[in-house]
Write a structure and sequence with these properties.
Layout lengths: L24 E7 L4 H10 L3 E3 L2 E8 L2 E8 L4 E6 L15 E4 L1 E2 L2 E2 L6 H7 L18 E4 L8 E6 L2 E6 L2 E6 L5 E3 L2
Antiparallel strand pairs: 1-5, 1-6, 2-5, 3-4, 7-8, 9-10, 9-13, 10-11, 11-12
GO biological process, one term: DNA-templated transcription elongation
Protein name: Antitermination factor NusG
Pfam families: NusG
Length: 182
């Protein structure tokens, strides 16, 4: 008698795009606290396509500081489903999953484009990157506000050094108001 092969599941961005058909939509599922990875693994083993947006989280415990990936929406994940073809009720019985977010008797789809945008913002490391390619020291153009269309140098993601009157003045800005220039 042979032993069953051990299946390894890797969460890569390429696997997280829905591959079930044109009618597939993204749905949100509530998961038990801290069980996002367990739920993701079990859903993949069943043939579903889950996606968990992740970010870096700093954790302090017993005089140690550790940075590790964590769910951007703790307790929730997204699953690509075609409710007409797939057995979506089995998601509710998956280890780690509480239930799909429902509207009456049917799962409630996430607004179109939302999860796709999160996937587009996910870097190679599997973490969300909202900086839009901005890095400290980069030249940026300010898009709005009293300094609109001025060029500056990015000091931090929330501060730009703008050249005014033979000096650099620090200006606090939201990174959404900036665009990197070459």
């Amino acid at each position: 008698m042979t032993s069953p092969e051990k299946t390894t599941v890797k969460a890569t961005v390429a696997l997280q795009r829905p591959a079930v058909g044109a009618a597939a939509r993204w749905y949100a599922a509530s998961v038990f606290p801290g069980k996002e990875d367990v739920a993701e693994r079990h859903l993949r083993l069943q043939g579903f396509h889950p996606f968990i947006p992740r970010c870096e989280k700093t954790i302090r415990h017993a005089r140690r500081i550790e940075t590790r990936p964590a769910a951007y929406f703790p307790g929730y994940m997204f699953i690509a489903l075609d409710v007409a073809l797939q057995r979506w009720r089995s998601v509710n019985g998956t280890f780690g999953v509480r239930s799909l977010v429902m509207q009456g008797e049917r799962p409630l789809p996430v607004p179109s484009g939302l999860v796709e945008r999160f996937i587009a913002l996910t870097g190679r490391d599997g973490l969300l990157d909202f900086s839009g390619g901005l890095a400290a020291g980069a030249s940026v153009r300010i898009l709005s506000g009293p300094f609109a269309e001025m060029i500056g140098r990015l000091d931090r993601l929330d501060r730009v050094l703008v050249a005014i009157m033979n000096g650099e003045i620090p200006v606090d800005m939201d990174s959404r108001e900036l665009v990197a220039i070459a």
